[in-house]
Write a structure and sequence with these properties.
The chain starts with 6 loop residues before the first helix and ends in a 7-residue tail after the last strand. It is built from 14 helices and two strands; from the N terminus they run H-H-H-H-H-H-H-H-H-H-H-H-H-H-E-E. Helix content is 76%, strand content 1%. Helix 6 crosses helix 7, helix 6 packs parallel to helix 9 and helix 8 runs antiparallel to helix 9.
Length: 323
């Protein structure tokens, strides 16, 4: 249900500290962490498997990555204990405006529910599918569909991740200049239009043992990831009022990434198995990407809380910060 259970809090915390005209840039660093985490996971698993051998890794070596993660838990607890509340939250608390029933106010009113549904179907559902397809499904496609050996497949994905991760920050910074929605919608539409030719290219390059091209085609998908994911934190934070932001943002994000995105490998590989067509698995992410782009464009709420300390304050939704 949650890819990073405190993502909403992290995005809000950074956005509420960042300069108004650089929210996209600063929050985009949060967006890099999921991709970096996947990259580091690949390196750790590769190191364990290569150093211990397949038998040793299967017998006991698979525990090593889990034990190493304990160090990250200790580090994250240390950081968390050093944090103070954001200025926006402190202002709300002093003014007595902190919500006493955030779940009811976020999802129990027509306006609050409408904004949450827009965040889910107009942003995070497509985001989850594009993110998982460009990284996880690319790896599964190589290993499970094309039968590329473990080492080669993981090296191709790892190199693409290393080259593509900085693009997320570039996209976040660009959203401060031209707006969040144009980049998000462009990424969704490019993904829907180009997934089939990209994966056909991956299959052809694999047959020719040209893994430089395979890596380049995975990197191309990370451009879509960057366009959709880089501005996403700022987009969501600016959509909701301060007193409901954490609850209203977090649930749509986790459903979009954890459910719509998390099921990409299962649904896509099942479609491949059921139809016998190696490209049938792309039907699901393409459909969700198109749906999300359409909802984002056609169903934008009339007002948004671009001012991070505001309620639903009649700020025009066409404001540069979000549109």
């Amino acid at each position: 249900m949650a890819i990073g259970g405190e993502y909403g809090g992290a995005a809000i915390y950074v956005a509420e500290h960042a300069p108004v005209n650089r929210r996209g840039f600063f929050t985009s660093f949060i967006q890099t962490t999921a991709t970096l985490g996947f990259f580091v996971a690949i390196l750790v698993v590769l190191a364990c498997r290569l150093s211990l051998g397949e038998e040793g890794f299967r017998a006991w070596g698979w525990r090593i990555p889990f034990l190493l993660s304990a160090l990250l838990v200790v580090f994250s607890i240390y950081l968390r204990l050093k944090l103070s509340e954001s200025p926006v939250f402190e202002q709300m608390r002093q003014a007595g405006k902190v919500s006493r029933a955030p779940v009811r106010e976020s999802f129990g009113t027509r306006q609050g529910l409408g904004y949450a549904l827009y965040a889910l179907f107009g942003a995070t559902a497509g985001l989850g599918c594009v993110w998982y397809t460009g990284q996880f499904y690319a790896l599964y496609f190589l290993q499970s569909v094309l039968k590329v050996d473990f080492l080669t497949a993981n090296v191709c994905v790892a190199v693409a991740l290393a080259l593509g991760t900085p693009l997320i920050v570039v996209s976040g910074a660009l959203s401060d200049r031209i707006g969040r929605r144009p980049l998000i919608v462009a990424g969704l539409l490019l993904a829907a239009a180009l997934y089939v030719p990209i994966y056909m290219g991956i299959a052809s390059a694999t047959a020719a043992h040209n893994y430089v091209v395979v890596t380049a085609l995975i990197l191309a998908q990370l451009i879509f990831v960057a366009l959709v994911y880089g501005p996403n934190a700022a987009f969501l934070v600016e959509l909701f009022p301060a007193r409901l932001r954490y609850t209203s943002l977090s649930l749509p994000y986790h459903i979009g990434t954890g459910i719509f995105g998390g099921f990409v490998p299962l649904i896509s590989l099942s479609l491949v198995s059921y139809t016998g067509n190696i490209y049938a698995g792309l039907i699901y992410p393409i459909a969700i990407a198109l749906m999300t782009a359409a909802v984002n464009v056609l169903c934008l709420p009339k007002t948004v809380a671009v001012d991070l300390s505001s309620e639903f304050d009649n700020t025009p939704a066409a404001s540069r910060q979000i549109a």
